[in-house]
Model the fold of this input.
Amino acid sequence: MNAVARHWPDAGETRIPYWVYTDKDIYQSELDRIWYGAHWLYAGLEAEVPAVGSYRTTTLGERSVIVVRSAPDEISVLENRCRHRGVTICQARSGKLPVITCPYHQWTYTLDGSLRGVPFRRGINGKGGMSPEFSPKDFGLVRLKVEVVNGVIWASFSDKTRPFREYFSERLWHSYERMFSGRKLRIDGYTRQTIPANWKLIVENFRDPYHAGLLHVFLPTFGLFRPDQGLELRMDETGRHGSIMPVPGHDPKAHSGNDFLSETAHDKSFKLADRRLVEAVHELKGEETVSTSTVFPSVIFLQQLNSLQVRQIIPKGTEEFELIFTFFGFEDDDEEMRQRRIRHGNLFGPAGLVTVDDFEVLPMAQSTYRAAETEESVLMMGQGGRVNSDEGSLATESPIRGFYQYYREVMGL
Amino acid sequence: MTALASPEVGPSREDVRAIYEDVRAFYHAYFEALDDDRIEEWPDFFVDDCVYRIIPRENYQAGQKTCIMQGDSKGMLTDRVRAIRSTQVYAPRYCRRFYSGLRLVGRTGRQLQIRQNLLVVHTLVSQPSKILGCGAAHDRLTLTDCGHLKLVERTIVLDTEMIDNTIIYPF
Done:
């Protein structure tokens, strides 16, 4: 893997050159170094594969994998590619299987990926058959490194990836444990969409507190976001992971009548006809009202109101990615809470009253980059990068700079 | 509306034909209002205590409740319309809905169960028209005291696996 012949702007992470969103060599290098490198990728939730033989297929980087419960206490993540002719073995999204059989020549693998059966291996009536040099143990499905952490399944293509908690860091553990405490999860469903923009733009979007009350007019309009509220921004030591958690302001009058409202042209008289859309009850540990975290590179976790969700990123070339929302609750939710979560889901997903803004604005950015590859974004809001991430204000872009500090290191840029 | 207004009328061929005529007229008005971007009129096709859902087939079949779009009352539909008009940020587009295979599945008093196939095409500025969604709608219509048909429930089960970025307007 040679470093790509591109020169990062001298101003460092306060500038993001547009070629990082358009260059095919950069993209290939991202797959090799980031997606297939020493990083944990989100592979699903344990609740999705409850019984031995339960499996789901998903995509990590650009590779299809089978996530399967291979034993009562073991989850295997296997590349969904027969070692014989490279056929995608499982076509369905989910199901239950005793063994994994390729449809083409019925090569059969056990649930942990070992090759168990090759039809006509000994030939037919003494004729033909597999070469005596063929050893089934050399041709199991490609197994990924797996770690299950409080109900979340993580997989890595590299065996050098550090244990998850160390990888994500103690500084951020609170944001993870808040959503995934080990309490049994219940899956409420999925949404899937293709967004015509580079995958990094959605990660940046989630590390950009500056846009929250400006792009999303819905939030300040309904009192779900105040620009003067406390904000806890955190990153790990490398800058690659981050969390943004608004906390209730301790002095609500300090900035009352702030100029933010006068700067946005939204209709202040807008009252919801049905308040149930945003009526929430406090349920998770801590006083934070919202928690968002990005786990480099593949996933975003979000709790807002009573909606709990995972947003999985699947890169599809330089100018497209897929975003899959998994909405979940807890097994012991009562019916009222269950309904509340579903109702709050209206704010999110492909038709989300809030999220549509992000999914629409990212392509508006991406669409200018190809014709202006040597131009660059200006990220001069706030101070510092990963070394100075606890500014407590939304008027900063330090989490994006932190992301790019690590990105440049791992990419050799 | 006469065939539906009198519950004692049996399901004669003529009655059924008359019901179909009324139901078709209702949907033509519904789709025309949406296709012409008169979405402010959309909530008025529903009774106050209504349910509107666009749900992925994947979730529907698994008994999971997550929807792409949902309203639990006419008020929530009004809120969605006001968000579309005043708070959401999106590129301008046209959206057109095509239905087929309309069938009266059942009838209970003044309520009709209707199903239909649905195809929705959207067109963004300077771009070719694309399929936004394809699926089936499972509706319940009721005849109000004023003699109008209104939706009590509209559940659109969407086959479409991968949404072409966003859905702004209802189907």
Q: What stands out?
A: The mean pLDDT of chain B is 94. The radius of gyration of chain B is 17 Å.
